[in-house]
Amino acid sequence: MKRSSSLYLYLLAAVVVLGILAISSRSIYEDRESAWREAEKSSHNLLKTLSRDIASRINLVDLSLRGAIEGLRTPEFQKLPPDIQHGRLFDRAATVSFTGTFFVLDANGDLVADGGSIIAPRPWNSAGREYFQVHKTNRLTGLYLGHPHKSTAANDDLSIILSRRISGRNGEFGGVVAARISLSGLHDLLKSLDLGLNGSVSLFRADGILLMRHPYDADKIGRDLSDAPTVKRFIREDSGQFEGTAALDGVRRFYTFERVDHFPLVLSVALSVDEIVAPWRRKALVLGLVTGVLCSAVVGLLVVFRRELQRRTRAEAELSRLARTYLDGIAQSPRL
After folding, report:
1. Which CATH fold topology does 32-56+186-277 show?
2. What angle do CA 12, 15, 20 make, to 5 degrees?
3. What pLDDT, in 10s, does the model give residues 138-163?
4. Dihedral sign from CA coordinates of 16, 21, 22, 28
5. Predicted confidence band at 64 (pLDDT cuts at 50, 70, 90)?
6. CATH 3.30.450.20 region(s) of the chain?
7. Class of the domain covering 60-182
8. Are the CB atoms for 213 and 200 separated by under 8 Å?
């Protein structure tokens, strides 16, 4: 009977401890899942907002480039006075506040018009530039985003060229219309995001060339990162979320990425894994300590109850022994 009582006591304590551990473990697990769901949701929302903003800006530039091409194709364009020609080409460009210069090159790469305040073209040839050669050799290239470079026309500010091919009536190469975009404005946009101490946001060309990144490092802009595991996934897939280690700084991050509209661009928002789980770790530590205290209390009570049970068992045994001794003494005493 006594052994049975002890067994029941042990079983009850075990059930209570296991119950506390199960509830605590489930709570810790659900808190971790909640932290990751919140990270997925917030990074997705940031990505969508930023992607729409960048796409809107590029669309404005592209509309201006298309407008300039339409102006050049007007039959009477060459007969118009220079100021009217300038207006036909660059009126739309005047509404794009975040760009540098719009300009037009002929089939030889010579500057024939630009969107500056001076209508007469200045001597300038860009036949050897990357964007010019791309359009000259490939008639199917649409909007082309050039390689980041320091522009002497913009006080050595980092810039990229957005350009379109000018084709003749028979498809022959007729030149290039282009716009120079300063990357400083794009950096201002990226750094306005609150991504924590070790978060990052990056804009890549579809071939893995880094166009802009925050945290900013001028030496990294323009690098070909197509061999990095994270960037390989950016190039291979249209969108997604995954956890990986950054090639540039070695920080473990949670990446959310997508193509920017129909442009050859990939935008990535990355949150530090340590910062995502830091609040959960603190909460899990507190909950773990509380769980440990509760389990220790149950074990402590078990020890107290066991000792009390043993004390009572010994007391009962002693009383039983004394009772037997007393009864034996009475039985053995002579009767009067």
Report:
1. Beta-Lactamase (3.30.450)
2. 125
3. 888 889 998 888 766 556 678 889 99
4. positive
5. confident
6. 32-56+186-277, 60-182
7. alpha beta
8. yes
